[in-house]
């Protein structure tokens, strides 16, 4: 199966669960499924076979282990970016790793 087919199938499966705002973004440079958990209000992006995302996540984890304040700072910056609507890479703004 192609990444796009996997993303579409995943979006269909997630529609059956207790999730909201499920969107399959298949034309993005890296196809993703966007969703939101209504219980926590947390948004999530899921991609398939994106090794760079795995490496970036490990890098952020390592940074957070060096200084616990980094995690708090990252959440503050993400909240700031979301409140100013500059947190959508596909619209030419900041990525979540920025």
UniProtKB/TrEMBL annotation:
SUPFAM superfamilies: Nucleotidyltransferase, PAP/OAS1 substrate-binding domain. Gene3D superfamilies: 1.10.1410.10, Beta Polymerase, domain 2. GO terms for molecular function: RNA uridylyltransferase activity. Signal peptide: none annotated. CDD domains: NT_PAP_TUTase. This is Poly(A) RNA polymerase mitochondrial-like central palm domain-containing protein. It comes from Aegilops tauschii subsp. strangulata. Pfam families: MTPAP-like_central (PF22600).
């Amino acid at each position: 199966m192609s990444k796009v087919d996997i993303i579409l199938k995943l979006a269909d499966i997630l529609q059956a669960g207790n999730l909201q705002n499920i969107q399959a973004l298949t034309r993005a440079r890296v196809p993703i499924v966007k969703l939101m958990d209504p219980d926590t209000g947390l948004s999530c992006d899921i991609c398939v076979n994106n090794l760079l995302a795995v490496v970036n996540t490990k890098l952020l984890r390592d940074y957070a282990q060096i200084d616990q304040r980094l995690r708090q700072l990252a959440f503050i910056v993400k909240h700031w970016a979301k409140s100013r609507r500059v947190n959508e890479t596909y619209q030419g703004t900041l990525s979540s790793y920025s």
